[in-house]
Amino acid sequence: MNDISIAQLRAARGLLGWSQHKLAEKAHVPFASLLDYECGARQMSQETATRLKYVLEQAGVVFAADETGVSLLPPPKVVPLEKLNSSNDE
């Protein structure tokens, strides 16, 4: 069983503003395969699911363990170089 649902995949792309083409390219997955999977025309292999999930997680997507949803991590706090000092150490 894949650990990423069609709904999660679509939602993750939506949160990131990524097209199917962009995700396929970043995950090194054939575009036609991704399109077929999202349309329900084909089952996704575990290897493909793992690739897609990894790429989306690296972009900040968090997947619900029960395959019901996704969320996006907040962007990291960035401190300008000139304002770095011990008061903003974490």
CATH topology (level 3) name = 434 Repressor (Amino-terminal Domain)
Into which percentage range does the β-strand content fall?
A: 5-15%
The total strand number stands at 2
Number of domains: 1
Amino-to-carboxy terminus distance: 39 Å
Instruction: Tell me the number of helical segments per DSSP (H or I, 4 or more residues long).
Output: 4
Question: What portion of residues is helical?
Answer: 40-55%
Q: Provide mean pLDDT, rounded.
A: 87
Structural class: mainly alpha
- Strand order within the widest sheet? 1-2
- Looking at the overall shape, the CATH architecture is Orthogonal Bundle
Radius of gyration: 16 Å
Q: So what's the CATH class?
A: Mainly Alpha
What is the CATH homology-level superfamily? lambda repressor-like DNA-binding domains
Biggest sheet architecture: 2 strands, antiparallel
What would you say about this model in short?
The protein has one domain: Orthogonal Bundle (434 Repressor (Amino-terminal Domain)). 44% of the residues lie in helices and 7% in strands.
Key terms for this structure?
4 helices, mainly alpha, two-stranded antiparallel sheet, 44% helix, 434 Repressor (Amino-terminal Domain), 90 residues
Q: How would you describe this structure to a colleague?
A:
It is a single chain. By secondary structure, the protein is mostly helical. It has one domain (6-72): 434 Repressor (Amino-terminal Domain), CATH 1.10.260.40. The protein contains 4 helices and 2 strands; from the N terminus they run H-H-H-H-E-E. It has helices at residues 6-16, 20-27, 31-38, 46-58; strands spanning 61-63, 70-72. Strands 1-2 form a two-stranded antiparallel sheet. The radius of gyration is 16 Å and the shape is elongated. The termini are far apart. The model has no long low-confidence stretch (mean pLDDT 87).
